[in-house]
Specification:
InterPro entries: HalOD1
Strand content: 15-25%
Number of strands: 3
Distance between the termini: 27 Å
Organism: Natronobacterium lacisalsi AJ5
Helix content: 25-40%
Protein name: Halobacterial output domain-containing protein
Number of domains: 1
Structural class: alpha+beta
Order of helices and strands: HHEEEH
Largest sheet: 3 strands, antiparallel
Pfam families: HalOD1
């Protein structure tokens, strides 16, 4: 589940996960706001209306990012996107 601390937010998790996959420093990645509203993403998953079944999927730095209400962030590879 997502928490209230910055390190426990979907935005932080997305940037960290993409940086891990690409090998880039998180500070060197383009702003996430270019592809999705970070405040809205955090608000969606911190609201009472979000459930474990809530899923947001978007493109960021050439990767498909999947964020779930269960607190997971998955970065799909090209092969996984085709399955």
């Amino acid at each position: 589940m997502w928490g209230q601390r910055e390190e426990d937010t979907p935005v932080y998790a997305v940037v960290s996960a993409v940086a891990d996959v690409t090998g880039d420093d998180p500070c060197d990645l383009p702003p996430l706001a270019r592809v999705i509203d970070p405040d809205a993403l955090n608000a969606l998953f911190s609201s009472d209306s979000a459930s474990d079944d809530t899923v947001v999927r978007f493109q960021y730095v050439g990767h498909t990012v999947v964020v779930t209400g269960a607190g997971d962030v998955e970065i799909l590879t090209e092969a996984e996107k085709e399955e």
